[in-house]
Write a structure and sequence with these properties.
Blueprint lengths: L6 E6 L3 H12 L4 E4 L7 H6 L1 H19 L16 H25 L3 E3 L3 E5 L2 E4 L2 E10 L3 E3 L14 E2 L1 H4 L8 E5 L3 H12 L3 E5 L11 H13 L3 E3 L2 E9 L2 E8 L6 E5 L1 E4 L3 E3 L32 E3 L10 H15 L13 E3 L4 E6 L2 H7 L2 E7 L4 H5 L6 E7 L5 E8 L2 H13 L4 H5 L10 H10 L7
Parallel strand pairs: 1-2, 1-6, 2-3, 6-17, 8-15, 9-10, 9-15, 10-11
Antiparallel strand pairs: 4-5, 5-6, 7-16, 12-13, 13-14, 18-19, 19-22, 20-21, 21-22
Helix pairs in contact: 1-8, 3-4, 3-6
């Protein structure tokens, strides 16, 4: 119990890592509090990230299907179709309020105290929240991340001309021309939202391909599909300046390798070049906790920092900045604090791009796998999947990468309508150390998209049936 402390566990931050850690700690009988200065719980993910973006992606996809005539091939004919942007945003806000309110309910149910304010360390067992000192035997840092600024470019979300991801979730009207700086997940998802609603979308990416970190073949195929959807994609291009002129923005770009500059006029510019850990203002210097070269907090496999009693999870520590990774770490750190064994297999963390089609992957890319040794690769185009063909959504493929000697699955990459759902099977198989043969000889329901994963695994073995 807390003995001389106010709490057994105090979690700083109520995002996916923080609120999950707090709830799990309370379930384990530890007196728990969570300090969060935002007016609602859930952190970036629920308030201005994962959840609101998915609401807009869903709405824009339905609108696009109706407006573009895609439904007519299924015999569905519609009259005039229009998008009510304020109503769409209100629907998004309703989803956010429902989920953030749900976490507040869970806090009350599990007897987690919400300390409404931002916490700063006074010492390793004491933080200050709104001028009041609070002590805890264990303190978990789960403050998440925020958008990385582009030097020399000033974001003003209220004006809607130069925005970050938060501003792009709340544009009051569809921009005529949206320039997205950064070809990563967030930029492509938000570009898809406004592109489906009628905006011209130009993506400027410094690297030679979009979606850094993903499998090379997936990156190339995704580039083709986005261009097919009307995106203009400028890879190998750097932004040297953005200027606001009246109600427009002028973006100056030039080849990353050097060359002649050009300008692009836009109604809205979305700065989406990544995220950085939220460690400022925590007073880490007061407890002797230094950051690594990337501004992250280093921990051991139990998520303990070098300062006894101080732990960290989520976006502030190394690894992919993903909500589900933070959630798993939140559960693990609470169990470790309680004396149990909490582990996270960081080699099996799926990632998903919620565009259309969705893009998902888990484990090693083909390039990474080949650096470690010989591999076998099997692919199944969605064109060979009966479910995809039946509903006329055949873009993409499933790719299985296995060790050439042991047949152990090292990575799975998918481009398909429901790739985000399909990747769960691959992740679970890899968690159990499955071989491609294990997947290939597992009976899959027919007709489903997941049969393409089975077929790709059969292709690894040289036994494909439908390709």
């Amino acid at each position: 119990m807390a003995d001389q402390f106010d709490y057994d566990v105090l979690v700083i931050g109520a995002g996916p890592g923080g609120y999950v850690a707090a709830i799990r700690a309370a379930q384990l009988g530890l007196k728990t509090a969570c300090a969060e200065g935002r007016e609602t719980l859930g952190g970036t993910c629920l308030n201005v990230g994962c959840i609101p973006s998915k609401a807009l992606l869903n709405a824009s996809e339905k609108f696009h299907e109706a407006k573009s005539g895609l439904l007519e091939k299924h015999g569905i004919k519609l009259g005039s179709v229009a998008m009510d942007v304020p109503a769409m945003l209100a629907d998004k806000d309703k989803a956010v309020s429902g989920l953030t309110g749900g976490i507040e309910f869970l806090f009350k149910k599990n007897k987690v105290d919400w300390l409404k304010g931002y916490a700063t360390f006074k010492d390793a067992h004491t933080v200050e929240v709104l001028g009041k000192s609070v002590t805890a035997k264990n303190i978990v840092i789960a403050t998440g991340s925020s958008v990385t600024p582009l030097p020399g470019v000033e974001v003003d979300n209220d004006k809607g001309i130069i925005v970050d991801s938060t501003g792009a979730l709340a544009l009051k009207k569809v921009p005529g021309h949206l320039v997205v700086i950064g070809g990563g997940v967030i930029g492509l998802e938000l570009g898809s939202v406004w592109g489906r609603l009628g905006a011209k979308v130009t993506v400027v990416e410094y690297l030679d391909q979009i979606l850094p970190g993903m499998d090379g073949e997936v990156r190339k195929e995704a580039n083709k599909l986005f261009m097919k959807q009307g995106f203009e994609i400028k890879t190998g291009t750097k932004v040297t300046g953005v200027a606001v002129k009246g109600k427009k923005a002028v973006v100056t770009v030039e080849p990353a390798a050097g060359g002649e500059a050009e300008t692009i006029e836009a109604d809205t510019v979305l700065v989406s070049i990544g995220r950085r850990p939220n460690t400022q203002g925590l007073g880490l210097d007061k407890i002797g906790l230094a950051l690594n070269a990337r501004g992250q907090i280093e921990t051991d496999h139990e998520f303990a920092t070098k300062v006894p009693g101080v732990w960290a999870v989520g976006d502030v520590i190394p690894g992919p900045m993903l909500a589900h990774k933070a959630e798993d770490e939140g559960i693990a750190v609470a169990e470790n604090i309680a004396g149990l064994t909490g582990l996270v297999n960081h080699n099996v963390i799926p990632s998903v791009v919620y565009t259309y089609p969705e893009i998902a992957g888990v484990g090693l890319t083909e390039e990474q796998a080949k650096e470690k040794g010989a591999v076998k690769v099997g692919k199944c185009p969605m064109l060979a999947n009966s479910r995809a063909k039946t509903i006329q959504e055949t873009d993409g493929f499933v790719k299985v990468i296995a060790d050439a000697q042991t047949d152990k699955v090292l990575g799975v990459w998918i481009i398909a309508g429901p790739a985000g759902t399909m990747i769960a099977q691959a992740a679970q198989a890899m968690e159990f150390g499955a071989t491609s043969e294990d997947i290939a000889y597992t009976c899959h329901a027919h007709p489903t998209h997941n049969e393409s994963l089975k077929e790709a695994a059969m292709a690894v073995l040289g036994k494909p049936i439908h390709i």
